[in-house]
UniProtKB/TrEMBL annotation:
It comes from Acetobacter farinalis. Its main location: membrane. Keywords: Cell inner membrane, Cell membrane, Membrane, Transmembrane, Transmembrane helix, Transport. It comes from the Bacteria. The chain crosses the membrane at residues 12-40, 46-69, 81-105, 111-136, 148-169, 181-200, 223-249, 255-274, 286-306, 312-333, 345-363, 369-393. NCBIfam families: PRK05122.1. The lineage of its organism: Bacteria, Pseudomonadati, Pseudomonadota, Alphaproteobacteria, Acetobacterales. It is found in: Cell inner membrane; Cell membrane. InterPro entries: MFS (IPR011701), MFS_trans_sf (IPR036259), MFS_Transporters (IPR050171), MFS_YhhS-like (IPR023008). This is Uncharacterized MFS-type transporter OQ252_04080.
Length: 399
């Protein structure tokens, strides 16, 4: 069993020192999420499906690199992986800058955007997974729920900060060369770059792994029931991240950045207010309630036909999705020994990556036939499937 890390200072302060890297990473994600689909469709002239794919390819890259991230963390320590992730994030921003300067050659620009999105996906995988394990080792295993919750606060808080900032930069013309997308790429690179010296200053911790480790498939099989429910709850976020800005543009509405910010703000506030309920009421109970609220928010998005109701739906979806990961993650991590905590977080997160990665392009294919309302309604129904999965696991635990 892992020993508790001695906390001479506040456990929250211990966590915040490292979780700032997650904040920087997801501010970068929020920057790109808000403007990449607009750039691909409006500036480069590609379809909505391709614009959705340009967003979702990041999550496919996160999925592809998640397994390696978990192993690197368990064997080499999380600090090294965080530093690698920040450097890769700088590369992502540089590729977006290059794409913005090649608008006259749409295909070349698109390829650079996709490469930048892939780089950001790898950076997300390495940073988000490594920060969780780094903080569990720094703050103690008993604070796993708090660690995961703070990681999520910085994740979607970063999106809430990054999205409106991206729209402000994208629609401005303050650079002597390039365009608004050039400014977004520069800002994305700078955000990741400022984290590098701070990460290098932090003390390293010993990796968990000592001796042979179970295979990734073994770890995946242990966390898979929790991961499948996480995947069901993540489809709604995939729909919002890939398609919400396009939905507003299609309806000639203003306020897409406000809707994304509403999602992030309610996500963060819910984490602050209700994380303790995971320990008090149990992770599966909290997950059931959360998925029902998420389904309600997506239904409002499907049925509402105004910017106001779209923003209300996004906000409710943020409330619902907020506690899904930590509520299920505590149970998932508990299925493995201390030598494979990184692999467990990686395997659990893979399910989120797959759901988000495929939901954007697949749901995007529905738009020409059934419209945006059907997309969000399907996502709501999938969230309710996750409720059913939680009920099944609760019954098994009760035996």
């Amino acid at each position: 069993m892992l020993e508790e890390a001695p906390c001479k200072t506040s456990p929250t302060l211990v966590i915040l020192v490292v979780v700032v890297f997650t904040l920087l990473c997801y501010m970068d994600i929020g920057l790109q999420m808000a403007v990449v689909p607009l750039f691909v469709r409006e500036k480069l002239g590609f379809s909505s499906a391709m614009a959705g794919f340009a967003v979702s390819v990041q999550y496919l890259a996160t999925f592809a690199s998640r397994i390696g991230a978990g192993r690197r963390i368990d064997t080499g320590g999380p600090k090294r992986v965080v530093v690698m992730g920040l450097g890769t994030g700088v590369l992502s921003g540089a590729l977006l800058v290059a794409a913005s300067l090649l608008v006259a050659w749409p295909l070349a620009a698109l390829l650079l955007v996709l490469c930048g999105r892939i780089a950001l996906g790898v950076a997300e995988s390495w940073i988000a997974t490594a920060v969780i394990i780094w903080n569990i080792q720094r703050a103690g295993v008993s604070r796993t729920a708090q660690v995961i919750s703070w990681n999520g606060v910085c994740s979607y808080g970063g999106i809430a900060l990054g999205a409106p900032l991206a729209m402000l930069v994208y629609h401005s013309a303050f650079l002597p060369v390039g365009n608004g997308f050039t400014g977004v790429g520069i800002l994305a690179a700078v955000l990741m770059g400022v984290g590098l010296p701070w990460a290098l200053r932090q003390p390293s911790v010993q990796p968990f792994a000592h001796g042979p480790q179970p295979s990734f498939l073994t770890v995946l099989s242990r966390v898979l029931p929790y991961g499948l429910v996480l995947a069901a709850g993540s489809v709604g976020f995939g729909a919002i991240s890939a398609l919400l800005a396009l939905y507003f543009a299609d309806q000639n509405w203003n306020g897409a950045a406000l809707a994304l910010a509403a999602f992030g703000i309610t996500f963060v506030l819910t984490r602050f207010a209700f994380t303790r309920q995971i320990l008090r009421r149990g992770g599966l109970t909290v997950a059931i309630i959360s998925l029902c609220v998420e389904a309600l928010g997506l239904s409002v998005l499907a049925a509402g036909h105004s910017p106001f109701w779209a923003e209300v739906g996004a906000a409710l979806t943020g409330v619902g999705f907020s506690l899904v990961f930590p509520a299920l993650g505590v149970g998932a991590v508990a299925q493995t020994g201390p030598e494979s905590k990184g692999a467990a977080i990686g395997a659990f997160s893979v399910c989120l990556d797959i759901a988000i990665g495929i939901s954007g392009p697949l749901l995007g294919l529905m738009i020409p036939v059934w419209g945006y309302g059907a997309v969000f309604l399907v996502a709501a129904l999938i969230s309710l499937l996750g409720v059913g999965g939680c009920v099944v696991m609760k019954r098994r635990e009760g035996r």
